[in-house]
Amino acid sequence: MAQLIGASESSVKRWCDTGRIPSKLTPGGHRRIEVATLLGFVKSSKYELHQPELLGIKNASIDHSDAELTQNIIFDALTCGNLDEAFMHTSLAFVGGKSLPSLLDEVITPVFARIGDEWECGELHVYQERIACRNLSQLLLRLRDLITINPQGPMAIGGALSGDPYELPSLMVELMLLDAGWKANFLGANLPVQSILSAVDNLQPELIWLSVSSINDPLDAFAANMADIWEKAHGTPIVVGGRALTSELRKNIRASIFCDNMQQMFDCLATLNTSARRLMIEPKDN
Q1: pLDDT value at residue 238
Q2: Can you list the positions of beta strands (E) in 62-161?
Q3: Strand-pair partners of 1
Q4: pLDDT digit string (tens) for 26-80?
Q5: What are the b/e assignments for 150-179, b being 16+ CB within 10 Å?
Q6: What's 95-145 look like in SS3?
Q7: Distance between CA atoms of residues 75 and 69, nearest Å
Q8: Rg (CA), the chain
Q9: What does pTM read for this prediction?
Q10: Which of 38, 102, 43, 48 is nearest to 70 (CA)?
Q11: CA nearest neighbour of 103 among 115, 117, 119, 86
Q12: Which of 11, 154, 180, 199 sees the fewest Cβ atoms within 10 Å?
């Protein structure tokens, strides 16, 4: 780690011993630091990675600001079942300065879309598509280790309604909200509307998000479910986005914000955060 970040070994040992860098002692008395812990430290500190090749992955020294190049490397790793390599390159892009909304919009979302496109065209076998999607979900969960969670942040909940089995879009939203200081909870995909209504009652969120990637119900039935959520929200902001969010659908459902990508949602969070923190001090009537 000292070589990677350009610090002295004594400094790294001291940071481990004081708890600034979480580590475990081996039976031989050495301090063992997880790679995700190392990258999380770099993300939250003034240090940079000087010799990424020491991490032991292929092409570690590429320019991760090149979104297309990073996409190709992560796509190849995911479809080959190499989750560790995909995670490392995603992390290096994030730690290297790419904001999380940019990373999600410019790298992760295109990789997800390419997996689906190549499966539909027959260029990927079904098993490759399943492995890649599962690994992509795991990659997003691993990225949490690079984020400093704010346990006192305003509560946000979200997911996808019945008939929509896609988890990845909501996992991305949850990750971005956590990085922005929210206490975000992904409730799941394919959720009955009554379950979401119960969550609003029980958890009292300051933000609700709904991912709309697939709709099986008739438009009027889906709109009725959204109206029920809107009524239950009692003015709590509702953010809706997803590839199935057509212009016709937007006209028939109520939402505070319609988002086409993560950057749009992120741009709204500053205002929502201010409102949420005020509401946490002065709870709204229910």
Answers
A1: 94
A2: 155-161
A3: none
A4: 999 899 999 888 988 998 888 888 888 888 888 888 888 899 999 999 999 999 9
A5: eeebbbbbbbbbbebebbbbbbbbbbbbbb
A6: HCCCCHHHHHHHHHHHHHHHHHHHHHCCCCCHHHHHHHHHHHHHHHHHHHH
A7: 10
A8: 21
A9: 0.85
A10: 102
A11: 86
A12: 11
Interatomic CA distance for residues 165 and 193, integer angstroms: 14
Using alpha carbons only, what angle is made at residue 136 by residues 135 and 139, rounded to the nearest 5 degrees? 85
Give the mean pLDDT of the chain.
Answer: 90
Q: How far apart are the C-alpha atoms of 108 and 52, rounded to whole Å?
A: 21
Assign residue 193 a region (left: φ > 0; alpha: ψ between -120 and 50; beta: otherwise).
Answer: alpha
The widest CA-to-CA distance across the chain, in whole angstroms, is: 66
Q: What is the pLDDT of residues 204-230, one digit of tens each?
A: 999 999 999 999 888 889 999 999 999
CATH fold label, 2-145:
1.10.1240
For the record, the structure tokens of 60 come out as 């570690």
What are 122-135's pLDDT values in tens digits? 999 999 999 999 99
Q: Which pair of structure tokens corresponds to residue 2?
A: 């000292």
Domain 155-281 architecture: 3-Layer(aba) Sandwich (3.40)
SS3 48: coil
User: Considering Cα of 160, then 166, then 172, then 174, what sign does the dihedral take?
Assistant: positive
